[in-house]
């Protein structure tokens, strides 16, 4: 008798919950679509001209800076690659339009507010260093080197252009980051100092130091010797191997290092205590050492082999 009474009480409750769930309007899914396409046109002599439109979507999380208020925010990244190529030519020129979408405050729609957008020449793109940066890569062709462009993931601002893996210097537990890059004359797009009125004789490349969304300093790496007739260096101006090494007994070395000494007070005057090492390999191996002091390249105390020299640009 007691068991029958319990069932009588429970069944109406379950039925009421089922009716409430069945009566709730389902939330419409978020959906965004970008058409993909491919086109091929026959040209004379058996050549084909091709056009490809290739959209790509991905999500990433925008984390608040260490110690800053706020919650992790989901971001939708919309990327559209437009590729053109001829079957009788090397390389596939490609442009990229990338848009980061966030959800506006109080909005009823998801991902309806543009956080940032960038556009330019690129064949590929990816996240760099735990989602702190967005990197696009323009492929080299015909012995030229790939060119990477690194953007601040929060703002879309360009931080660095490099033909090597950029080195990242982190001040732990703070939002302070420094990027060290090198833009070679052999890049598929050369540095501006290699063209026009700004052209520097015997230029090999440009060493750069950047904050998360701003380039701070530029130093030209030049081949030593009198100017050549055409202004170009006599050696092949390919990129060096680039690493960063911190000072002290607990030194860190590589393309990602921590600057613990500046953790408590990460102001520019404390951003130092590390050096950039560039190894140029050719007929001989030459290594350039450039210390960083007070958030700047210390050229007065750099070590430079006789066949090279440094000159400040910015």
Concise structural overview:
The chain has 314 residues and is mainly β. It has one helix at 2-23; strands at 37-42, 48-62, 73-86, 94-102, 113-121, 124-128, 133-138, 147-152, 158-162, 167-170, 177-184, 203-210, 215-223, 241-246, 253-254, 256-258, 274-281, 285-293, 296-297, 308-312.
Counted up, domains total 2
CA radius of gyration:
27 Å
Q: Tell me the major beta sheet.
A: 6 strands, mixed
**Helix content, binned percent:** under 10%
Averaged pLDDT = 91
What are the secondary-structure elements, in order, as H or E?
HEEEEEEEEEEEEEEEEEEEE
Task: Assign an overall shape.
Answer: flat
Put simply, the count of helices is 1
* Proportion of residues in extended strands: 35-45%
Uncertain ranges: 1-17
Find the structural class using helix and strand composition. mainly beta
Structure description:
This protein has 314 residues and is mostly beta strands. It folds into 2 domains: 34-121, no CATH class; 132-314, no CATH class. It has 1 helix and 20 strands. The protein has one helix spanning 2-23; strands at residues 37-42, 48-62, 73-86, 94-102, 113-121, 124-128, 133-138, 147-152, 158-162, 167-170, 177-184, 203-210, 215-223, 241-246, 253-254, 256-258, 274-281, 285-293, 296-297, 308-312. Strands 16-10-11-12-13-20 form a 6-stranded mixed β-sheet, with no helix packed on it. Strand 10 and strand 11 form a beta hairpin. The longest helix is centred in the N-terminal third of the chain and has 22 residues, at 2-23. It is flat, with a radius of gyration of 27 Å. The N and C termini lie far apart (91 Å). 27% of the residues are buried.
């Amino acid at each position: 008798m007691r068991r029958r009474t319990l069932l009588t009480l429970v069944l109406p409750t379950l039925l009421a919950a089922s009716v409430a769930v069945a009566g709730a309007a389902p939330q419409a899914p978020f959906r965004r679509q970008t058409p993909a396409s491919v086109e091929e046109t026959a040209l004379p002599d058996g050549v084909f001209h091709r056009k490809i439109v290739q959209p790509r979507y991905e999500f990433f999380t925008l984390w608040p800076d260490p110690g800053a208020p706020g919650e992790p925010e989901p971001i939708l990244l919309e990327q559209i690659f437009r590729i053109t190529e001829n079957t009788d030519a090397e390389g596939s020129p490609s442009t990229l339009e990338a848009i980061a979408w966030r959800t506006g405050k109080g909005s009823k729609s998801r991902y309806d507010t543009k956080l940032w957008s960038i556009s330019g020449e690129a064949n590929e793109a990816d996240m760099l260093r735990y989602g702190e940066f967005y990197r696009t890569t323009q492929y080299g062709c015909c012995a030229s080197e790939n060119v990477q462009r690194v953007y601040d993931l929060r703002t879309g601002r360009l931080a660095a252009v490099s033909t090597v893996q950029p080195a990242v210097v982190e001040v732990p537990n703070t939002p302070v980051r420094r990027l060290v890059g090198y833009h070679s004359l052999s890049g598929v797009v050369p540095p501006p100092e290699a063209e026009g009125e700004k052209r520097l004789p015997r230029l090999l490349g440009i060493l750069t130091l950047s904050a998360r969304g701003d380039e701070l300093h530029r130093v030209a790496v030049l081949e030593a010797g009198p100017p050549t007739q055409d202004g170009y260096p006599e050696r092949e101006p390919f990129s060096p191997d680039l690493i960063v090494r911190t000072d002290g007994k607990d030194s860190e070395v590589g393309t990602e290092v921590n600057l613990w000494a500046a953790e408590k007070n990460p102001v520019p005057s404390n951003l130092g205590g590390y050096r950039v090492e560039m190894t140029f390999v050719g007929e001989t191996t030459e290594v350039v050492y450039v210390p960083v002091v007070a958030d700047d390249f210390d050229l007065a105390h750099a070590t430079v082999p006789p066949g090279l020299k440094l000159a400040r640009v910015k």
